[in-house]
Fold this protein.
Amino acid sequence: MGIESSEVMRIKEAAQRVRRRVIRMTYLAGSGHPGGSLSATEIITCLYLKVLRHNPEDPGWHDRDRFILSKGHACPALYAVLAECGYIQEEELWTLRKLGSRLQGHPELNTVPGIDAPAGSEGQGLGIGCGMALAARLEGSQRRVYVMLGDGECDAGNTWESALFAAHQKLDNLTAIIDRNRLQQDDECVRVLDTEPLAEKWRAFNWHVIEIDGHDISQILDAFENARSNKGRPTMIVARTIKGKGVSFMENNVSFHGKPPNQEEYERAMRELGGNG
Amino acid sequence: MELQRKFYSEALLSLGKEDPRVVVVGADTTGSLQINRFGKAYPSRLFNVGISEQNMICVAAGLALSGKIVYASTFASFGTALVYNQIRQSIAYPNLNVKIVCSHAGVTVGPDGATHQMIEDVGLMCGLPNMKVIVPADAPQTYLATRAIKDAPGPFYMRIGRGEFPTVTSMDLGFEIGKAQILREGKDITLIANGIMLSVCMEAAEKLKTENIDAEVINVHTVKPIDTAAIIQSARKTGGVITAEEHTVIHGLGSQVACILSEHYPVPMRRIGVMDRFGESGKPEELLRKFGLTAENVVSAVMDVIKRK
């Protein structure tokens, strides 16, 4: 372990750029999901800048690692990271959700390079990840599969079907992350449908479970290292996060689940994030 | 009389040998579908997910996204309606190489009753962009269709029955996706059918012959993309059309034929099928009779249409 501090700084700075892009994208789109994008920012940035074996010059490389953003509504963060890696140009980000744009409101396959699976209706990404992990094992490939879920997504029965299956198949090349921001569309998760104790549930499903602070770069990178060395079981990283992280008035504010900032909020958010809009 | 399921699994065995990309997923019905035979021959390439059909479709998607050609199989009620959204978002939308092959479709499921008698699957699947839909007439056609869809890119839905179906096609007849087959030429009336109703229409055509009515019988095994040209051509020739399907008439073969003809070449027509109701327990032949899926009913529909010509 012991990630060099310069590496952590590099990722931290990239994550801050991703945050600014998320705010600008959703502001210009006039719709979208800033809250769950900001809670997932460090994790997705870590994946693409450090963890995944991938090549932006060759998005279809068969033996690349795969990443599925099962909580597809957080795609502004993913698109912003794809721009950070050079899969797409930064200018394209400002077309989010507009007619004719490749950047659909929820990820579409076969259009944007770097997107490994479609998502939108919650609960399907983990099963897709299981299929990808099976295929990798079948081929004797070392490629790994990463799936990010929302905590609200743990309401979905489909998620638990896949949880059983991944453990039954001993898919240790599969790592899932829960963006545990504790809020879902209607309200706090515990008020809508209480899934606590969440980590315990995954342990009971025979997963290797790691709990971390999902905004701490070192902890995130350590967790992915830990997952890589874990054998015989899939790994679940339960990442405690803050919905709307980095923008004071969006933090822990359920109303910014699916609402973009207005002009005044946009300018304020950009100031807080050290940008000039 | 032969089992479509048996010929499906035979075809899978041949495909498994020819193409290492072929994998199969099932959901605790691998014995019924006879896909366990594939698992015996290729143990690492059959995945049984248990009673988790939503996961089955997602796993199929993940395998296809990794370059596999995936056959996903269970009973029609669980493999379509239960997982419609998973098919929609994770298979059809990304246009993946997943072939969903479901048995136990239609009322000939028999004693299991309405919950298992899937009569809306063809319509559900036809409505999905990118999805292609095949209803093979019998066992040999099931074999040929199973093989044909392997190399046709994108998602397919193929529905087969539980019981033994009379054999009306043959291996020699061949099979081309989207190309209707005229099994019997005639000039007075067109009978369009697929699945088990093809054999019913062949029987009806024999009965009609004794009444000096010369019926043309067309096998529209591919409901999507449907062979529009063949349907219009026959309607032009005979001036009257009957459709017959073991499916609701609301959004199946009959309604599609009606749309095509009303747009291109309207002729008097009647649809034979399940009339907007659920099935019930009984023996397959009792149920076919109860729901009017019989040669006698086809004949009386023909008489009605001929009167209106």
Notes: Residues 4-18 of chain B form the longest helix (15 residues). Chain B has two domains: 2-165, 181-308. The mean pLDDT of chain B is 98.
